[in-house]
Specification:
heterodimer; A: about 300 residues; mainly alpha; 12 helices; about 0% strand; B: about 180 residues; 7 helices; globular
Chain lengths: ~300, ~180
């Protein structure tokens, strides 16, 4: 029952992300557009390119969606509203979201198209840049909570949210989460202007609809993860827990979309260099600082 | 218990099947991802055996590793798309013997080794994670750290080998 509720909430969230994305991109706040666009997409022919790797081509959008939904399954929206409070929750979300890469590689290789393939391999390079910046800040979060349970991580922030306790980790995680969701300026895999939508290029109709939905869900999952790990999850005064979770998730989503809007697309080589030469040392420093802090001021 | 045994068996068979697919396909990409799903099925077997941390870790690590392997297979194989029907197996007699010896060895260890009393109820997942952490940073620390440093050394060495020597880059156009 909880799973169903969470999936419905994710769907609603994906719709809100679509509205927000359009609002931020072209300044028009229209609530019907995502629904109409979705219906239009379902009505269009879903073309299968010539000589595709059929298994990969068909699996990719579904795998992307499953990966995003599985990631959301271990994130608590209220103390009780969580599908499964795994003892390895903070690790599990990484395991689920790594399959975003597998899905994009499949989507890149499957359709037998040059743009798609470049997009897919680009995302592999992107993963090499962002992966450590997802895992290492979560390590520091788990260190403070002394647990991998996501509910325990929220509870550990009762006195002080992690965004204040470990701001460096928050900054790194936020940027890495944007890269994981291939949001601008990290949309190297889809890059409209240079790759003609990259991994999405050969998809159309219902398959593209699933792909887009999966991407929106992924943004939602990552925003929820940021809230759980750094913004105190459901905690807050006056309002009920679910409202706080919802508001914070929407705020994080808006921040992610807005941040991407203000920056030019990053180059693959720059992303890699910054990830490894700046990001990873900072992430290690963050782990060290949090380690010291946990000892002197838990 | 029977449900548990069923799932362990199911994922075990899936792991073997995907392992077979690795060599049956001609496409490097399919081969790499089949190996990934074989390893993921192993992770699912761990989950079936109530070793949650190990299972999740296996499922996470393999996705990245096999994807990176995929790009190397595509880069270095002469027929990555498998359109030329490249033969995926080689040194068949040696492989058969090696596979047989390895399987017999592993099976013999599994059957003949005295594993001691089996715990009837597995400790809960949080306890297992804590125990594993203490084990890795306690009794097994030397092994763990040695393995880690060995891998790191290999990575640095491989990168160093892959980089063009500075003098070659600046003086000649041979490359």
């Amino acid at each position: 029952m909880t799973s169903l509720l969470i999936i419905l909430l994710l769907l609603a969230g994906a719709y809100l992300v679509a509205v927000l994305e359009a609002w931020i991109a072209n300044g028009r706040l229209r609530f019907a557009t995502p629904v109409l666009a979705g219906i239009a997409m379902l009505g269009r022919e879903s073309i299968v390119p010539r000589q595709p790797d059929r298994i990969f081509f068909e699996t990719a959008p579904v795998l992307l969606l499953i990966s995003a939904i599985l990631g959301a399954m271990v994130l608590p929206l209220t103390p009780d509203l969580i599908t499964t409070d795994l003892a390895t929750g903070a690790l599990f979300i990484n395991a689920a979201l790594v399959y975003v890469l597998v899905a994009l590689l499949m989507a890149g290789w499957g359709p037998d198209g040059a743009y798609a393939m470049i997009g897919g391999w680009r995302f592999l390079g992107q993963l090499i840049a962002y992966a450590m910046l997802i895992v290492m800040p979560i390590t520091a979060v788990a260190m403070r909570a002394e647990s991998l349970l996501t509910t325990q991580i929220v509870v550990s922030q009762a006195g002080l949210w992690n965004i204040v306790y470990q701001p460096l980790g928050f900054g790194l995680f936020f940027v890495a989460a944007m890269a994981l969701a291939f949001l601008p300026p990290f949309d190297l895999a889809t890059a409209n202007s240079e790759l003609a939508s990259g991994v999405e290029a050969e998809y159309s109709g219902v398959r593209l609809a699933v792909f887009r939905l999966a991407r929106l869900t992924l943004v939602m999952t990552l925003a929820a993860a940021t809230v759980v790990f750094y913004l105190g999850g459901w905690q807050g005064p006056w309002l009920p827990p679910w409202a706080w979770s919802g508001l914070k998730i929407l705020a994080v989503t808006a921040a992610m979309l807005l941040a991407g809007r203000l920056m030019p697309r990053i180059r693959e080589a720059d992303l890699m260099a910054w990830g490894w030469m700046l990001g990873i040392p900072l992430a290690l420093l963050n782990i060290f600082l949090v380690g010291v802090l946990v000892l002197v001021w838990p | 218990m029977t449900t548990q045994a069923f799932f362990i068996g199911f994922f075990g068979l899936a792991a073997v099947w995907f392992g077979v697919v690795v060599f049956r396909t001609h496409s490097m990409m399919r081969s790499a991802l089949a190996l990934l799903f074989s390893q993921t099925a192993l992770g699912a077997m761990f989950l079936g055996m109530q070793a949650e941390f190990l299972g999740v870790l296996q499922i996470m690590m393999m996705a990245t590793e096999m994807s990176i392997m995929a790009i190397f297979m595509v880069m270095f194989m002469m027929d990555p798309g498998g359109l030329g029907e490249m033969e995926m197996t080689h040194q068949k007699r040696l492989s058969l013997v090696a596979g047989f010896v390895a399987f017999t060895g592993a099976a013999a260890v599994a059957v003949l080794f005295d594993w001691g009393p089996v715990v009837s109820v597995a400790p809960d997942a949080a306890q297992q994670t804590a125990d594993l952490g203490l084990e890795l940073l306690g009794r097994s620390m030397l092994i763990f750290e040695t393995a880690g440093i060995t891998i790191l050394t290999a990575m640095i060495a491989a990168t160093a080998v892959a980089i063009l020597p500075i003098e070659a880059k600046t003086t000649t156009n041979e490359y």
